[in-house]
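FORM 7B - TANDEM STRUCTURE REPORT

SECTION 1: FIRST PROTEIN
SEQUENCE AND C-ALPHA CELLS:
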Amino acid sequence: MSNNKLKILIIIDSLGSGGAERSTEVLCDYLYEKDIPFQIIVLDKRNVGVQTRMLQKGYKISFLEKRGFLGEVRLLAQIIKKEKFSLVHSILFRSNLRTRCAKFITNFIHLESLVNTTYSKERKLDKKVNQTALKFFKFCDKVTARKGVDHFHSITETVKTHYINELGLNPEKITVIFRGRKPILSNFADRIELPNKEVNFINVGRHEFQKGQIFLLEAAKILKEEGYSFKIRIYGREGTVTPVLKDFVETRNLGEYVTFEGYSTNIPERLLESDIFIFPSLYEGLGGALIEAQAA
C-alpha cells in the first residue's frame, strides 16, 4: 500500500511521561518524515509529558469527548467510519479496550501494541492494586482480544510470551518489533566534569510500585551507613508511592544523598552527566528509560 493511500489513526490513553507515550512520539516523527498521513486521538489530557511537544510539532491531535465507556466506543466507531482510516493503532489498556469494542460496531483493521507484562506475578505484591478488579479486567482483556484485534505488535519476546500464556493469544498474530531511540550524542561533553570521589547515580521512572524505587532507597541507606560519597537523582512524575518514597528519605536522613527531580525534558543531558544508571523495576515491557540510557 503506497503512502498516499495509507491513513493511520493512533489511539492512546494519554501523551504523558511514560515509555509508551515517548515511543508514540518517536513513531509519529517517523510517519511525518515519511509523509504518511496520521491522526491521534487521546483519552486524557496531560500537562506533564510529550503532549505539549507533539502539539507544537503541529501533529493533528484531538482529545476524545468524555461520554462514559459505551459512549466513547460509539464515538470512536463513528470517527473511524467517517474518516475511513486504513489502519487503527491502539496503545495502552483503556484505548485498546475501547478500540476493540468499536470494531464490533464498524469494520476496520486494528493493530494493537503490547507494551507491558500486565499480569506479572510481581503485580500481586502491590497493595494498591485491587486484585479482584485486576482479574475482571484480565477477563475482559482475554475475551475482547480474540475478536477485536487483527494483529498485535509486541515490544519484546518476553511480552509476547506473557500474553500468549496469560490470555491465550495466537502466536501467529503477534509480531515482535523492538523499540528504539536515536543515539544521544555527547553534545554536552565539554560541560561534564566527572567527580573525583562522589558517584552520581540516576534513575528515571514515574513513582509507582512497578518501578521499584523503594529498593534503590534501601540501597542508598546501606551506602550511607558504609560511608560512601554519592548522589542519587530520581527523575519522573509523582505517583501513588511518592509519599512512601519521600517518607523513607526523610526518616532515614537521606536528604543529602537523594533528590526527587520531577519530570524533565532534558533527560539525555542528565544521563550524560551521570556515572551510573539504575533501573530497579519489578516488571517491565521494555522500559523506554533503559533504551535512552543505552543510547547515551
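SECTION 2: SECOND PROTEIN
SEQUENCE AND C-ALPHA CELLS:
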Amino acid sequence: MLKRRLKEPFGKAGLIVAVVALVFAMLGGAYAASNGGGKATTSAKQGKQGKPGKTGPAGPAGAPGAKGDTGAAGAAGTNGTNGVSVTSSTEAKGTNCKEGGSKFVAGAGTTYACNGEKGKEGSPWTAGGTLPSGKTEKGVWSIEDRRIVDAAMQLGVTGVKVPLSFPIPLTEPLVEGNVHFINEEGKEQLGVGNAVPSTACTGTAAQPTAEPGNLCAYETFQSNTFAANELIAPIAEGRQGARIQFSVVPPAGATVGEAIDVLSTGTFAVTAE
C-alpha cells in the first residue's frame, strides 16, 4: 500500500494538474518567442483621420421660452430746462421790412413777418363799371311758396314777382321786345297757348345764352305757375335787372280755402348790346 502511494505521489488529480501546467508553460514560451524574446508588446496601429463631413440642415426652431420676470423700474429722469417764450413787436419800415411788419424773438433767435409791398394799380375788366359789349352775365331765380286758393286766384289775377338782378349793369338799357321767357319744353312762351322756337335764346337752362341786347329766362321747373314774354319787364332803367310776374294758376278742381304749392325755378342770361 505504501509502495503504491510512492509510485503515484499525486494521485489522478495531481496528474491532471501537472498536465495543465505543462501545457500553459509551453504556450507561454511560444508566445514569448514570437514577440522578441519573451517581452509582451501591443501592436494596434491607428487608422488615418478622415475629412469632416458636410454641415447638416438646420434643425427645427425650438419652442419659445417662458416669459421672463418683469425688470426693475428704471431711475427717474432729470427735469428738463424751462423753455423760452416768444415775444413779438411791431417792426417799423426799414432794413428788415421794407413796408414794416412784425418782429419775433425767441431766446437768441429773431425772425420777421413783413408786410407785402404795394402792387401796381390794375385796370378794371369792365371799363366804366358796365358789362362790355357782346359779353354775357348769368343768374338764377326760384319761387317756393304755399298759397291758399281764393276767389282772386281763381280769376287769374294773383301773381308772384321775381327779380332778375344784373351784378354788372348794362351800358344800354333793355327794351321790352328783347325779353324772352323759355318754358320747360325749351320753347319761347309768347302768351297763353302760344309757344314757338326762339331765335334770340338758343341755349338751355343748364347753359343759358342770349343774343346781344337780349335777356333770356329759362324755366327748369314749375308747379301752379305761368309766365310769358309779356310778363317780363325791365327795371332800374333796364340796365340793372328785370322782373318776372308769375301768375298763380290753381290746379283743376282746387276749391277756395285749399292750400297749394307755388313753385318755379330757372336760370337767365343777358348779353350786352
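SECTION 3: OBSERVATIONS ON SECOND PROTEIN
Residues 1-8, 29-44 have pLDDT under 50 and may be disordered.
The chain is about 10% helix and 30% strand.

SECTION 4: SIGNATURE
Preparer initials: ____
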